[in-house]
Structures are given as C-alpha cells and as structure tokens.
Amino acid sequence: MKLYDYAHAPNPKRVHMFLAEKGLDMERVQIDLTKGEQLSEEYMSVNPLCQVPVLELDDGTRISECLAICHYLEEIKPQPNLFGSNPAERAQVLMWNHIVEQEGIPGLAEALRNRIKMFRDHALPGPVGYTQIPELVERGRKRSKHFLDFMDRRLGGQDYLALDRFTVADITLRGAVDMAARMAGRFDFEVLDGRDALAAWHSRLSERPGIANAA
Ligand SMILES: N[C@@H](CCC(=O)N[C@@H](CS)C(=O)NCC(=O)O)C(=O)O
Fold this sequence. Notes:
By secondary structure, the chain is an alpha+beta fold. The protein has helices at residues 10-22, 41-44, 66-76, 87-113, 135-154, 168-187, 196-206, 209-214; strands at residues 2-5, 27-30, 54-56, 62-64. It folds into 2 domains: 2-76, Glutaredoxin (3-Layer(aba) Sandwich), CATH 3.40.30; 87-214, Glutathione S-transferase Yfyf (Class Pi), Chain A, domain 2, CATH 1.20.1050.10. It binds glutathione.
C-alpha cells in the first residue's frame, strides 16, 4: 500500500494520526500542493478531484476521502477499535465525524481559501479555478467560532467527542482544531483560550503518542 500525501496539509494529517494510532505505516508519496502538483495530469489520473490523501492498495485500487481510507484501515486492522464496536456506537462515531466534516471544516476552509494569496484563483480544491470571494472570509470566521463553541459545549460533559473513549471522530476534530489554531493569528480568533473543555480535550489527545507524533 502507499499513501499519496502532502505532509503539511490538514486532511492528510488525519490519516497520519489514524495510522499512528493503529501502529501502521506505509510508503508516502509527497504531492506538493504549494507547487500545484495535485493539478498535474499525472496526479489527476490518481484522483480526478485533485486532492490528497489517496490510499493506493497493492492491486492498484485507489481510495480517496479520509474517512473511507480510515475505514479501510480499520477493516484490515480492527484493533484498537476506532469506529465503534456495535451499531449504536458506529452510528455515533459517523454522526460526530460527519458533523465536524460538514459544520467545522468548511467554515475554516471558507475563511482561509478566500483570503490567502496561494488560493487566489483556487478558492476551492479541485480542477476548476474558482476565484476568491472576499465576503466569505468573515462568514467563514463566524462559522468557525460558532463551531468551536459548539464543540466546547459538547466536550463539557465528556472526555471524547463521540463515545466515552477515543475514536476517529476525535482525530477529525483534532485536524480541524489544529487547522484553526494555525489560522488564529491571521484571522484574529481564539481557539483554545476561553474554551476550557475543548482545551482539556486537546491536551488529553496530546498525551497520546500517536497524536503527539503525527498531528
Ligand atoms: N474530502 C476530502 C478532502 C481532501 C482535501 O481537501 N485535501 C486538501 C488538502 S488538506 C487538498 O488536497 N487540497 C488540494 C488543493 O487545495 O488544491 C477528504 O476527506 O480527504
């Protein structure tokens, strides 16, 4: 197996954390997003959506989308369990994962991609060159703040996002929170300051070697 990767990007980092938690490793092929390598014809044949990560199996099957990649890895190495152990647990894990992917990551991406130079004619990932819409920066900031508050409230009563133990939903949230933290200075918002439950959860995750080394 090999992973088409870009070591510094938030979504590939989710797979890095998952691999580390599972004690798995594999060849990683770096696709340099700052040089536009994801838009090359060669990479388009790997993923027509021009995004990383992509997991390539030994028989050539290619799997894009972090959750699908992690799900495959869970199936081939079920322990430690990160997707839930029964139907209700699995539904909770998928539900919270989806909430982070739909309610959290898009707001952050909206603020970032409509502001910084690197994304000037590339405001959305993929092969189409969408121009930036500056008004979306403020909306993205608002959505991000609202989402972080929501996560802080959710974690107020429990140690982990979906279950009473660590799961892939925590990895997805950690990816989003770390992305927010890297943006915080430029976008003038607080991430962990003033959100005590989120900050405690963040420290709890940092105590895990898999997360500390891979995040
Ligand atoms: N839904 C995808 C998102 C993948 C994604 O957006 N990857 C970013 C890196 S974090 C990317 O490849 N961006 C390419 C670009 O901006 O052109 C997943 O879950 O894997």
